[in-house]
Amino acid sequence: MMVEAERLKLLALDEEDLAVLSAYVQDAVLKVSDLVYLPKEQRFAVGMNRFIWEKADGRRHTYERRRTALTFDLAPSHVTPEEQVEMQRVLARARD
What we know:
This protein is of the alpha+beta class. It is built from two helices and three strands; from the N terminus they run αβββα. The chain has helices at residues 15-25, 81-95, and strands at residues 35-38, 43-51, 65-73. It has a three-stranded antiparallel sheet with strand order 1-2-3. A hairpin with a 4-residue loop joins strand 1 and strand 2 (43-51). It is elongated, with a radius of gyration of 16 Å.
């Protein structure tokens, strides 16, 4: 069982923060069905199995992946209506 202290919670507010977040999920694996756009919440969510880089010490038997959620809050001021429509189209095509 994972204790609260082992849970990784990150927030990206700028490009530098996003680079850190990107490093943590760089070897994650996911399915297209794990991509979800929630229009009412103005949120895009991704479920993935993230490689736990912070625990890797180079020995094969210590490698670990954890189920992880990554969400992007899409405030209307940051995303135009046209971009929202395009995002919905892309996600719809990805599911087909």
